[in-house]
């Protein structure tokens, strides 16, 4: 049996080693063995006749060798049952435990509980990665907190903002994603020891009708497996609505990442901000001059896939009949690992981009100079009024000059010369010496720099406090391709 059976092609090439291993068959089947061990320890502690030798043999053989993978594969081919194939294989290397492995349990004891363990750890990996991305973008926002840039609404020129303030819009959504992922992890419980249809009938029989021991068994195995609580009731499986609740914040993260990637692609087209571009990187096989934003495009591409995977969980949850049907199994073996692996790749790519963003202030300044004269007209009118002028007359003067300048830009392809026209018009002589100040971009950005400072201090720093060590120890991400 190949150790990458449960991995998608993405995992083997792009995912971090931790996330790829988490969803590998090597880790999956090792986790099954740990769950069988936990069950045996708890059953022994509560009085079932399980020998110390059996426990020790199980402890000594938690990790499968290549030979054991092959035995399990052959047994599964014969029996058409993966769990029973691994019960048999485990018994070969722990013969003293062979008769009690999986005692009283159903297949979902290992499959579902293992999935919950993987999900819980995967959420922690994503939280750590996301905290690093937020930290990197926060440093970027702080660096460019006061650099004026043209704002866009409807992708049309709007009032000025700053490069740093725009980045805080991305960070704020990522903070919400951090919150959502934490909530999902904190809410995650254990299926526990519930038996074939969730009634614990088999365990009640094992303990001769002792309900307290059955309850103690459930709690003890849950604790041994690292969970603070088990779901109070289950069917044969844990409710597939749990998968819905888990994949929802991943899909939401995908939406955030897609928005960031799209903004960066648009900025690359404007030549204002670019993602990292290697000195030997080729943008196009035909057009040698091109610098395609391929990392941001990858983020958008994978994020769309991540958002769609949530639909799988919704459909699976909605059609799980009564105590359980099997049509969820093949779907979940693909959709759950793929969702976490995809989120992992999206975050590592986003970190790589955030660590190498390049800003072009001169391009930004030039674009501002093309649009700012129109935006400054109200300031010019107000300045004239303060000098004793008539607002309606000033408005008409500016309107005419603006249309003339607009003609230069739109019809003749020339630069915006509105301010030159204002300077040459005697009507505006009273404020001629104020025009430089009235056109200073920094006077059009409002409280953007202060908003950046307060946001980073009051919101980002507290949110990242518990991940401080992770952020400080994290190195730069180098993408494979």
UniProtKB/TrEMBL annotation:
Any one GO cellular component localisation term in the record: cytosol
Pfam families found in the cross-reference section: ADSL_C (PF10397), Lyase_1 (PF00206)
Catalytic activity: N(6)-(1,2-dicarboxyethyl)-AMP = fumarate + AMP; (2S)-2-[5-amino-1-(5-phospho-beta-D-ribosyl)imidazole-4-carboxamido]succinate = 5-amino-1-(5-phospho-beta-D-ribosyl)imidazole-4-carboxamide + fumarate
Pathway: Purine metabolism; IMP biosynthesis via de novo pathway; 5-amino-1-(5-phospho-D-ribosyl)imidazole-4-carboxamide from 5-amino-1-(5-phospho-D-ribosyl)imidazole-4-carboxylate: step 2/2; Purine metabolism; AMP biosynthesis via de novo pathway; AMP from IMP: step 2/2
Keywords from the UniProt entry: Lyase, Purine biosynthesis
InterPro entries, per database record: AdenyloSucc_lyase_C (IPR019468), Fumarate_lyase_CS (IPR020557), Fumarate_lyase_fam (IPR000362), Fumarate_lyase_N (IPR022761), L-Aspartase-like (IPR008948), Pur_lyase (IPR004769)
SUPFAM superfamilies: L-aspartase-like (SSF48557)
A GO term, aspect molecular function: N6-(1,2-dicarboxyethyl)AMP AMP-lyase (fumarate-forming) activity
Enzyme class: lyase
E.C. number: 4.3.2.2
NCBIfam families membership: purB (TIGR00928)
Protein's recorded name: Adenylosuccinate lyase
Origin species: Piloderma croceum (strain F 1598)
């Amino acid at each position: 049996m190949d150790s990458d059976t449960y991995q998608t092609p993405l995992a083997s090439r792009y995912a971090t080693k931790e996330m790829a291993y988490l969803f590998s068959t090597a880790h999956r089947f090792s986790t099954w063995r740990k769950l069988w061990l936990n069950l045996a320890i708890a059953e022994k502690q509560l009085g079932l006749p399980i020998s110390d030798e059996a426990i020790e043999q199980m402890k000594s053989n938690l990790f499968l060798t290549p030979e054991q993978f092959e035995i399990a594969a052959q047994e599964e081919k014969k029996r058409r049952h993966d769990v029973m194939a691994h019960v048999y294989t485990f018994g070969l290397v722990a013969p003293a435990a062979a008769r009690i492995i999986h005692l009283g349990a159903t297949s979902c004891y290992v499959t579902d509980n293992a999935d919950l363990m993987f999900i819980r750890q995967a959420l922690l990996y994503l939280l750590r990665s996301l905290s690093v991305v937020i930290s990197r973008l926060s440093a970027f926002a702080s660096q460019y907190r006061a650099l004026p840039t043209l704002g866009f609404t409807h992708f049309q020129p709007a009032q000025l903002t700053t490069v740093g303030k725009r980045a805080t819009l991305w960070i704020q959504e990522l903070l919400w994603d951090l919150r959502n992922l934490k909530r999902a992890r904190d809410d995650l419980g254990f299926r526990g020891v519930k038996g074939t249809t969730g009634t614990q009938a088999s365990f009640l029989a094992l303990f001769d009708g002792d309900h307290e021991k059955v309850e103690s068994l459930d709690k003890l195995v849950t604790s041994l497996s690292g969970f603070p609580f088990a779901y109070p009731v289950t069917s044969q499986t844990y409710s597939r609505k749990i998968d819905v609740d888990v994949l929802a914040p991943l899909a939401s993260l995908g939406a955030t990442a897609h928005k960031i990637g799209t903004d960066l692609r648009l900025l690359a087209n404007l030549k204002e901000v670019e993602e990292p571009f290697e000195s030997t990187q080729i943008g196009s096989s035909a057009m040698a001059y091109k610098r395609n934003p391929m990392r941001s495009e990858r983020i958008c591409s994978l994020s769309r896939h991540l958002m769609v995977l949530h639909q799988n969980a919704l459909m699976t949850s909605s059609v799980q009949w009564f105590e359980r049907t099997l049509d969820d199994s093949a779907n979940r073996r693909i959709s759950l690992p793929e969702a976490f692996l995809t989120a992992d790749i999206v975050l590592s790519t986003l970190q790589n981009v955030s660590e190498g963003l390049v800003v072009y202030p001169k391009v930004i300044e030039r674009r501002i100079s093309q649009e700012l004269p129109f935006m400054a007209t109200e300031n010019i009118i107000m300045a004239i009024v303060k000098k004793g002028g008539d607002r309606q007359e000033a408005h008409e003067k500016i309107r005419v000059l603006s249309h003339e300048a607009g003609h230069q830009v739109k019809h003749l392809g020339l630069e915006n010369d509105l301010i030159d026209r204002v300077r040459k018009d005697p009507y505006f002589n009273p404020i001629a010496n104020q025009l430089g100040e009235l056109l200073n971009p920094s006077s059009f950005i409002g409280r953007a720099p202060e908003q950046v400072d307060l946001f980073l201090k009051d919101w980002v720093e507290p949110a990242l406090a518990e991940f401080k060590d992770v952020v400080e120890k994290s190195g730069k991400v180098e993408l494979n391709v």
